Amino acid sequence: MSILEAIRSAIFEEMERDERVMVLGMDVGRLGGVFRVTRGLMDRFGSERVVDTPLAEGAIIGSSIGLAIGGMIPIAEIQFLGFTQQAFHQIGPQLARCRFRSRGRFHAQVTIRAPFGGGARTPEFHPDSIEAMFSQAPGLKVVCPAFPDDAKGLLLTAIRDPDPVLFLEPQRIYRRIRGEVPVGDQPVPFGRSRLVREGSDLLLIAWSAAVHMCMEAADRLAEEGAAVGVLDLRTLVPLDVDGLVEAFRTSGKAIIVHEAALTGGFGAEIAATLQQEAFRSMDAPIQRVAARDSPYPPGALEDHFLPSVERILKAARASLAF
Predict the structure, then answer these.
(1) What was the pLDDT predicted at 299?
(2) Cβ contacts of residue 92 below 8 Å, gap of 6+?
(3) Is the distance from CB of 213 to CB of 256 less than 8 angstroms?
(4) 178 with 1: CB under 8 angstroms?
(5) Which domain holds residue 210?
(6) Could you tell me the CATH number of the domain that includes residue 24?
(7) Which of 226, 244, 246, 227 is nearest to 236 (CA)?
(8) Where are the beta strands (DSSP E) in 103-193?
(9) Contact by Cβ (8 Å): 60, 9
(10) Which of 89, 107, 126, 258 is catalytic?
(11) Number of domains in the chain
């Protein structure tokens, strides 16, 4: 399956399994979503469980909170992650805190799906990688798969989680990355990273589409005689601290790669965690390869704005020579 097909499969299976599961968002019904992820859902489950909403992100999330408190299990689609800024007043202070502020009386079993990331030449607000903002919303889990099997397994876990989950989908590789997806009910637990490539000289740490850039860079570095590992975090919240530290200690050198702007990106949290938890294993300064600290440029310029394999290689050679 492609990542897109794996996500669709998970939604279909959960809606078949539990009649409380429903989908809402702009164009999710008749059109099947902007990327056609939800195509066929309205035909199968009807307009009461697959609801086309107005273009109003705050209303989509606010409605999802009420639906969850009323006993439904909403899957809310926000067309692009950048648009969630129009709903942060509902996501942060309301959705994420619902169970805490009600002392456990009310669940907020809501999954927010949102494609994000560059490489697709989309207009501004469409490719923004603002995942770090949501790590500052305690009570909200942040999930970012890079492979089809994880896309399905992590989404199954997200939909069933009693707490709200922000499920980030890498739009540039929706259809490009394909792989085997287990048949049947096989959810993937949160908080467990995935070492997709072993290496004793350097560790590249990433999530979502950036994992595949790291794998390409690791292949290039192997031709130069370097054994470079690649760690896919899978989830940012909860973060697999034990797995992160274990993978890092193999080499004592790491580069963190993400599409968000450098300053305040989640890579800084990872670097701080490694400095605190694995300082004695550190053999070189931890580096970050990220997007530039500027507003997202027009599509024709995004190759100069985003991290690239060449920028990863430059940072990796510096670490390896340290």
Answers:
(1) 85
(2) 134, 136, 137, 140
(3) no
(4) yes
(5) 194-320
(6) 3.40.50.970
(7) 244
(8) 111-116, 141-143, 165-170
(9) no
(10) 126
(11) 2
Q: Do 202 and 93 reside in the same domain of the chain?
A: no
Q: Is the same domain home to 19 and 143?
A: yes
End-to-end CA distance of the chain: give it in Å, rounded: 41
For 259-302, the pLDDT digits (tens) are 999 999 999 999 999 999 999 999 999 999 999 999 999 888 99
222 occurs within a structural domain: yes
What pLDDT is recorded for position 201?
A: 97
- Counting residues of the chain whose pLDDT is more than 70, the rounded percentage is 100
Instruction: Please list the ranges in the chain whose pLDDT falls under 70.
Output: none
- pLDDT value of position 122: 85
Q: Three-state SS string across 159-173, please? A: HHCCCCEEEEEEHHH
Note whether 156 and 251 are same-domain residues: no
Tell me whether residue 107 is one of the annotated catalytic residues: no
pLDDT at residue 119 in the model: 87
User: Is-above-0.85 flag for pTM?
Assistant: yes
Please tell me whether residue 15 adopts helix, strand or coil conformation. helix
